[in-house]
Amino acid sequence: MLRPTCHKEKAFARGFWVTLIVPPLLLSACSEHRSPVPQPSRSDSLSWGILIPATAPIGRSWEIPRNPLAMHAAGDSAKMQSVLHGFALFTNTQQFAPALSGNSLSCNNCHPNGGQREKAMPLVGIDKVFPEYNKRAGRVFTLEDRIIGCLLRSMNATGSRTLGSKMRHENDLNGSSLNAETREVQDLASYITWLSARPEVGKQLPWRGHNSLPPSSLIPVEKLNPKLGKALYDEWCSYCHGKDGQGVDFFGKRPGPLWGPNSWNDGAGAARTYTLAGMIRNWMPYINPGLLTDEQAQHIAAYITSQPRPRFPFKAKDYLKEKIPVDAVYYKQLYSRNPLTHK
């Protein structure tokens, strides 16, 4: 989603080194105004030895710690070929899977550094938590099911313009172009599983669950202020994401679009306001995560989720067994119109 990004403040124009010095001062001055972001212990070798730390400098934005291209020759086994293809799909989804992508995002936008950055939804070990219950689908998901959901929603596969592509809801995949047997799904699963091929990685992942806000800090949706969110966005986010939300070019790289036709669709997890706020709060600004308060992150998320984005055509089949979350602002089953667009 938000990659590659950088910390922004008013001193930005005076040189990028300023942004590396000033943030600690701002953190100490503002710390009493926000709830602390949970920090893993530095003695925890799993967190700090496997993943790029959340506070790593901007120069490590494109680093892939465990990289199949660097560790194996292209002529390796069929299994390794699947891993290599999965890695290519992960880092450039639109190029290598145009039939399964309806926007300009890649998996690496939401899971940077090849899925190996702390607090940015890292995927190391994630295969070991499946099968896992999915509230939106109301059933137990395999890793392949979860990948399908990401492709359908975050990659907007339902908006693919490839002739003959046929997409269906995760609970109704018969006849779909995207299912557990699809090569791209199998290869993405191979790459994610390969990432976890370390004996010390078990089901208890210390880096998982660092992208949500505490329930006590949540502001009722009707009290969120997208106008304030826009002002905060312009101040803190626009240097990297652009005022139009489409991303600013950095040496040929740019963050993925946050709204509009090339962004994730309105059935994606990041289309939920509190979910997005948790990502912003714990992950942004890019080299100084945690600088924003819980409240600021929610208003920024409200601004972003008040914007237009592609429609997921099967939302009526979501949450049939579970209650629709209150921050699912694009769901007409819950709101006749997005409650954030008329504030």
Outline the low-pLDDT stretches: 1-33, 37-45
Helix content: 25-40%
Radius of gyration over all CA atoms, rounded: 19 Å
Helix/sheet category: mainly alpha
Would you identify the CATH architecture of the largest domain? Orthogonal Bundle
Number of domains: 2
Count of helix runs: 13
For this structure, the CATH topology of the largest domain is Cytochrome Bc1 Complex, Chain D, domain 2
Mean pLDDT: 85
Main β-sheet, in a few words?
2 strands, antiparallel
CATH homology superfamily name of the largest domain: Cytochrome c-like domain
Total number of strands: 2
Order of helices and strands: HHHHHHHEEHHHHHH
Amino- and carboxy-terminal Cα gap? 25 Å
CATH hierarchy class name of the largest domain: Mainly Alpha
Tertiary shape? globular
* Estimated share of beta-strand residues: under 5%
Query: Which strand order do you get reading across the main beta sheet?
Result: 1-2
Keywords, separated by commas or semicolons:
Cytochrome Bc1 Complex, Chain D, domain 2; single chain; 343 residues; two-stranded antiparallel sheet; mainly alpha; 2 domains
